[in-house]
Amino acid sequence: MTHTITCPSGLTGVLRGMKVREERVLTDRKLAKSGGQLDALLSACWEQTLETGPYDFGGQKLDWGRVLQGDRFYALLQLRALTYGPEYAFSVGCQNVSCRARFEWELDLNELPVRTLSPESLDRFSGGNRFETTLPDAGAKLWFKLFTGADERKLPQLRRSAGDRLLSAMLGQRVVEIEGVSPKEKRRYLEELSLRDADHLVDEFDRVDCGVDTALEVECPECFTVQEVELPFDQGFFLPGKSRASRRRARASSSLS
Ligand SMILES: [Zn+2]
Asked: Which member of 48, 137, 215, 231 has the greatest number of CB atoms within 10 A?
């Protein structure tokens, strides 16, 4: 089954559902370690590019490393929906400490709100991926970029190495230049940033970016507490059969003994 999809930036192409052979991509440990799993999956299932949107691939094959994070995630959601249908169920643990019930939550992936890339952002992105803002406390101008697949690949490594300096490390990945600050001083400058300025930056990143909103409001069926959870995005998202396989194995081994 194939389907034409239009990503939040306008990138349009033909996507097909996953085949049995894609399981190898998802369970390949080497690929998982290199962070190349999602790129390999998208490349395998993206059959044809119809509109390049803000990207210039120089007439070559689409390079997922250069595609915006928001587009990549949208394409992955569509791939999931195309392969298994748009309904997605997962298990949630109630956050109310006096309840702690575990319940199933189901949603339609096509109903998640999508933010498209604004014409201004499209211009800035294709003109070198530079976005300008002014810090409200420090008063300095700075320039930042939107994340692409290549930046996304560096995040697991960054999380491991940044330790308790994760916020400034994350900001450092995004911020390309600060007015009056040399590249060598950038990291130290970001460490000294007021939290109000940091908060402003994160808001700005969100405001100009495109993507899919994955913060969900769910209600516990036991105590009716409404809570916010993030859409779980792990191996089970693409291989829902894994839990079925382990149930089968458990049954098989108990019937053997
Ligand atoms: Zn509850």
From this structure: 231
